[in-house]
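Hey all, quick one. A colleague (J.T.) asked me to put the Salicylyl CoA job into the tracker so the inputs and the structure tokens live in one place instead of scattered across chat threads. No bug as far as I know, just bookkeeping. Sequence used:
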Amino acid sequence: HIRSLSKFEDVRVEISSDGIAKITIARPAVHNAFRPLTLLELEHAFRYARDMPSIRAVILTGEGHRAFCSGGDQSARGHGGYVGDDGIPRLAVLDLHVMMRRLPKVVIAMVAGYAIGGGHILHMVCDLTIAADNARFGQTGPKVGSFDGGYGSSYMARIVGQKRAREIWFLCRQYDAKQALQMGLVNTVVPLEQLEIETVKWCREILEKSPTAIACLKAAMNADGDGHSGLSQLAGEATRLFYQSEEGKEGKNAFLEKRKPRFGSFVIEE
Ligand code: 2NE
């Protein structure tokens, strides 16, 4: 895992000693637009963050101060999707959204400069967004022949309301950090030079809290919007806790020891 992370071309992963993973999209020449390789590396990075128990919070950001992310790299856009080295057109960013929502840890978008198009949706899918005062937000899909009808539309409408979401998509305007704060698109706005300090401060406050409570709350807040998949995420948290109980272990041990399980002593406490 660690070796493969260090070989990344488009994404940088840094991990602090207190358990914060900082994932940076590093393509500043194109305002951190993502190509298929970028998404593959982001998937690996988020999987790593999920699997490492020592990682408790994740920051997603873009390199430099000019952009968080400008969405899909239009030069990689082919017939039916974005085409990487294997020649297969994909919309892999949609899978990344699901992965970020299913990560049982808090993901914070740290946004300086443009969060535009698919880059805007990436920050929205994060649990929290800390914006610098130079941040600019917006969609471009109807201008550049694209749209995101998944989280990019319905989840956006849940955040900002139906009228605003329709305005954002149908007019393709840009909004500054103050407007984004008023719409509830971001959690706070800070001067650019304070951005990383403030984001780390939020992470450290989260690190002091119960990881299980946070994982369950995230799953609960996703559950209504994500249908069966959301319920499965929430129920998965319950299963994970059950596996850790003596009752859960008795079932497994009885099977492996080829005997009847002894559940008689377990009671459901009110
Ligand atoms: C972000 C924005 C508004 C910034 O404008 P400006 O004027 O400050 O910068 P400029 O000159 O446009 O960009 C700097 C360089 O980055 C490249 C530009 O082509 C330019 O390159 P050079 O001319 O210096 O060589 N660049 C910027 N964004 C890029 C991109 N997305 N792909 C490839 N190259 C890009 C302005 O740059 C802008 O509007 N960018 C395009 C935003 C956009 O339309 N993104 C795609 C939306 S669709 C999407 O993301 C998507 C989806 O909707 C559904 C599924 C999957 C993806």
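Adding what we noticed when we looked at it: The mean pLDDT is 96. The CA atoms of residues 247 and 263 lie 7 Å apart.
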